[in-house]
Design a protein that fits this description.
106 residues; alpha/beta; Rossmann fold; 6 helices; 48% helix; globular
Length: 106
């Protein structure tokens, strides 16, 4: 089972911060779901992410970056995470990557 899920905007952080964070978590023995690592070709991406959030992850790490909110996909994923948090003990850990908190609030 997955213990954590990474939610991030690929074009902003995939080849930099998120890769390093994912590697560090795995190195620490924390099983981590990342869409480009865990979803097999041909599988429904939305269903797989929803399953990871609802059934496998205890923690969601949301990496807010400059273009995170510009992605409908990222926002839909965030809604799923926050809805799950309302009805469970799911932990949401926000990470602000190269953005200020005030930029995310707006």
């Amino acid at each position: 089972t997955q213990l954590s899920l990474l939610s991030f905007r690929g074009e902003d952080t995939r080849k930099s911060f998120t890769d390093h964070l994912y590697t560090a978590l795995v190195h620490l023995g924390i099983q981590t779901f990342r869409d480009d690592e865990e979803i097999e070709r041909g599988n429904n991406i939305k269903d797989e992410i929803e399953k990871a959030i609802l059934h496998h992850s205890k923690i969601s790490i949301v990496v807010f970056s400059k273009n995170y909110a510009a992605s409908t996909w990222c926002l839909n994923e965030l809604v799923m995470i926050l809805e799950h948090k309302k009805s469970s003990k799911h932990i949401v850990l926000p990470v602000f990557y190269d953005v200020d908190l005030s930029q995310v609030k707006n």
